[in-house]
């Protein structure tokens, strides 16, 4: 199989001088939001990964993951969209791919498990999609945070840091989709530490974030914005009291809620007072020395640049 | 007026199905139009077969050339469980076909002022929130007689890729077959048209278009246009044939065929 897992020894022996040379590629599923609402997430991820020697190879003709995982066990139609993406991975001659958006990750991962659990389901889905080659099963869904931790390794990342984030206080916000249900979680459902470890390897201080595994209110933002506002008040308030400079997420919807509802609390459209929300890839890219223009920071409603620039004097 | 043009287009096509002695037709096929069996000459189009069987179109036919999308037809062939879709004017009869025409697809169409709409991906979701219901079943793609990647353009719409929608849907003739089949009840062709309009608006207007519009507005063509409008049908046909001959693009037989097809009328 091409692109097998890179042996640890190969990575260890690679010289840091070759840092900007792409040596490896991993298939990548962007998801709709990253092409429209959250372009900075994708841009920064691509740039940061290149610094680490990895190219994100976008799945050809991918389709929407389906957004929300369907809990009905007999509605196979809801799994057609994920499986079609797995077929794209299979066609690339690959056996795994990474997702960035926590929501896509969650939906795709659960669907992969759903069809793996009962081959009868899979064969019916395959029979329905008679225009596609059969999905043979076995494609592994990874979240980029997992990939950074388990495949590239935080030590390796630390060795590539060009602008250590000394003194920066960063609050992680996992939300629901990276951690629950437990079978698809990338870390412990109540006490995860992947983001904290990443921040520390980048030189930052991980701020205790007591509501980091709680829900942001998600789609309630449409019908019951008041509910989300209260959630955001709690989530952000707790890390503000601990002097967090930034909050870091992995989900466009969490980001939207945490930004927008901070603004609705302060009543300002663009503010310098709220706590900026960054994607973990933007923080990573910044520390790895990706030029600011490639991090997609400009789209943020609460500008993170003042917090970042105080670090390295510009 | 509309009826008269339909009649003339029909007459122009009659040569294919009338005036031939049945005794001279060597190959026949059996088809079922709305469940009723007919024997029709092999090798003609579905549209010609429907007329051969004695039907006369008042809807469900337009250009007869694969451009207007009026002749959407669904069918099955004996021994195959698949439901197929085609344009009646572009598809040959097959033995054992069961067919019915779907001349119209009921479709909700939002009204908008294109100049007031932001050329952004979110604008598509604002007017067509139902595209988020797509389950990626690909049924629309299988139904499309233009062989477009219909699902892919809906997926492009979902991610706000106006250019992608515009390019993937460019050859859509709005027949509605995709929308009749979609389990998510999406009206693909309206989404696509809206996206193309939005995208088109965001492109710079080419210089030659600006120049031509200026010429038209300043009246450069007014006199010639009035002269044409004052001509009779025969005079226009004559003029058309003469011009085509001068261009060398039309032999004299072609000229008569074109006129008979009513296309000289434009
Ligand atoms: S996209 Fe739909 S409306 Fe357009 S040509 Fe194809 S089937 Fe017909
Ligand atoms: S038929 Fe409808 S639900 Fe199925 S892929 Fe096409 S747009 Fe999506
Ligand atoms: S009649 Fe116009 S496409 Fe068939």
Could you describe the 3D structure shown?
The complex is a heterodimer of chains A (314) and B (266). In chain A, 42% of the residues lie in helices and 10% in strands. With 314 residues, chain A is of the alpha/beta class. Chain A folds into 2 domains: 11-144, Glutathione S-transferase Yfyf (Class Pi), Chain A, domain 2, CATH 1.20.1050.140; 160-312, 3-Layer(aba) Sandwich (Rossmann fold). In chain A, α2 packs parallel to α12 (280-287) and α10 packs across α11. The longest helix of chain A is centred in the C-terminal third of the chain and has 16 residues, at 225-240. Chain A is globular and about 55 Å long. Chain B is α+β, with helices and mostly antiparallel strands. Chain B has 3 domains: 2-101, Beta-grasp domain (Ubiquitin-like (UB roll)); 114-202, Alpha-helical ferredoxin (Fumarate Reductase Iron-sulfur Protein, Chain B, domain 2, Orthogonal Bundle), CATH 1.10.1060.10; 219-255, no CATH class. In chain B, 43% of the residues lie in helices and 10% in strands. Chain B has helices at residues 2-17, 46-52, 121-127, 139-143, 150-158, 162-168, 177-181, 188-202, 207-217, 222-230, 233-247, 252-260; strands at residues 28-33, 36-41, 72-77, 84-87, 97-101. In chain B, strands 2-1-5-3-4 form a 5-stranded mixed sheet, with helices on one face. Chain B is flat, with a radius of gyration of 22 Å. Mean pLDDT of chain B is 88; it is low at 254-266. The chains are: A alpha/beta (314), B alpha+beta (266). Chain A binds chain B through residues 31-33, 35-37, 61-64, 66-67, 77-78, 80-81, 84, 128-129, 131, and chain B through 121-122, 132, 134-138, 141-142, 151-152, 155, 158-161, 183. The structure holds iron/sulfur cluster (2 copies) and FE2/S2 (inorganic) cluster. FE2/S2 (inorganic) cluster (FES) binds next to loops of chain B. The site of FE2/S2 (inorganic) cluster has 13 residues of chain B, from loops.
- The beta-strand count of chain A equals 8
Number of domains of chain A: 2
Label the structural class of chain B.
alpha+beta
Strand arrangement, largest sheet of chain B?
2-1-5-3-4
Mean pLDDT of chain A: 90
CATH-defined architecture of the largest domain in chain B:
Roll
CATH fold topology of the largest domain in chain A:
Rossmann fold
CATH class wording of the largest domain in chain B: Alpha Beta
Number of domains of chain B: 3
Mean pLDDT reading of chain B: 88
Give the % helix of chain B: 40-55%
Cα radius of gyration of chain B in angstroms: 22 Å
Order of helices and strands of chain A: HEHEHEHHEHHEHEHHEHEHH
Shape summary of chain B: flat
The CATH class of the largest domain in chain A turns out to be Alpha Beta
Biggest interface, residues from each chain: A-B, 20 and 18 residues
What count of helical segments of chain B does DSSP give? 12
């Amino acid at each position: 199989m091409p692109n097998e897992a890179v042996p640890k020894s190969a990575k260890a022996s690679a010289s840091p001088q070759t840092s900007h040379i792409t040596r490896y590629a991993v298939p990548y599923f962007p998801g709709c939001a990253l092409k429209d609402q959250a372009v900075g997430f994708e841009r920064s991820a691509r740039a940061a990964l290149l610094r680490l020697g990895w190219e994100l190879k976008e799945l050809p003709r991918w389709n929407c993951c389906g957004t929300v995982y369907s809990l009905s066990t007999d509605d196979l139609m809801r799994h057609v969209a994920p499986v079609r993406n797995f077929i794209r991975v299979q066609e690339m001659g690959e056996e795994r791919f990474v997702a960035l958006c926590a929501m896509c990750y969650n939906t795709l991962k659960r669907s992969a498990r759903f069809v793996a659990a009962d081959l009868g389901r899979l064969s019916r889905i395959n029979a329905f999609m008679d225009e596609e080659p059969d999905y043979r099963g076995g494609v592994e869904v990874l979240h980029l945070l997992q990939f950074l931790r388990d495949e590239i390794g935080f030590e390796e990342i630390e060795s590539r840091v060009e602008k250590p984030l000394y003194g920066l206080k960063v609050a992680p916000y996992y939300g629901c989709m990276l951690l629950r249900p437990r079978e698809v979680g990338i870390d412990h459902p109540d006490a995860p530490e992947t983001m904290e470890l990443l921040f520390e390897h980048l030189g930052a201080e991980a701020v205790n974030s007591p509501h980091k595994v709680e829900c942001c209110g998600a789609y309630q933002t449409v019908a019951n914005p008041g509910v989300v506002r209260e959630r955001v008040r709690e989530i952000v308030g707790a890390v503000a009291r601990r002097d967090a400079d930034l909050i870091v997420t992995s989900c466009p919807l969490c980001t939207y809620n945490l930004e927008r509802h901070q603004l609705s609390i302060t009543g300002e459209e663009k503010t310098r007072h709220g706590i900026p929300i960054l994607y973990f890839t933007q923080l990573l890219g910044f520390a790895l020395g990706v030029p600011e223009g490639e991090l997609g920071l400009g789209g943020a409603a609460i500008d993170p640049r003042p917090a970042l620039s105080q670090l390295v004097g510009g | 007026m509309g009826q008269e043009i339909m009649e003339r287009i029909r007459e122009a096509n009659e040569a294919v199905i009338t005036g031939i002695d049945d005794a001279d037709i060597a190959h026949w096929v059996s088809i079922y139009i709305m469940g009723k069996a007919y024997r029709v000459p092999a090798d003609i189009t579905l549209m010609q077969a429907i007329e051969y069987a004695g039907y006369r179109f008042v809807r469900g036919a337009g250009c007869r050339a694969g451009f207007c999308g009026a002749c959407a037809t669904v069918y099955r062939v004996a021994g195959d469980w698949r439901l197929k879709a085609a344009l009646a004017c572009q598809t040959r009869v097959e033995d054992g076909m069961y067919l019915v025409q779907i001349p119209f697809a009921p479709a909700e169409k939002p009204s908008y002022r294109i100049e007031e709409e932001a050329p952004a991906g979110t604008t598509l979701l604002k007017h067509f929130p139902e595209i988020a219901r797509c389950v990626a079943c690909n049924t629309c793609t299988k139904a499309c007689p233009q062989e477009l990647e219909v699902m892919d353009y809906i997926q492009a719409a979902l991610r706000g890729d106006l250019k992608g929608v515009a390019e993937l849907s460019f050859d859509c003739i709005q027949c509605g077959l995709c929308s009749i089949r979609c389990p998510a009840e999406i009206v693909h062709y309206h989404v696509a048209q809206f996206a193309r309009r939005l995208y088109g608006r965001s492109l710079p207007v080419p210089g030659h278009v600006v120049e031509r519009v200026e010429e038209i507005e300043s009246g450069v063509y007014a006199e010639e246009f009035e002269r044409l409008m004052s001509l009779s049908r025969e005079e226009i046909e004559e003029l058309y044939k003469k011009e085509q001959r001068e261009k060398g693009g039309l032999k004299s037989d072609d000229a008569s065929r074109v006129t008979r097809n009513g296309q000289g009328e434009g």
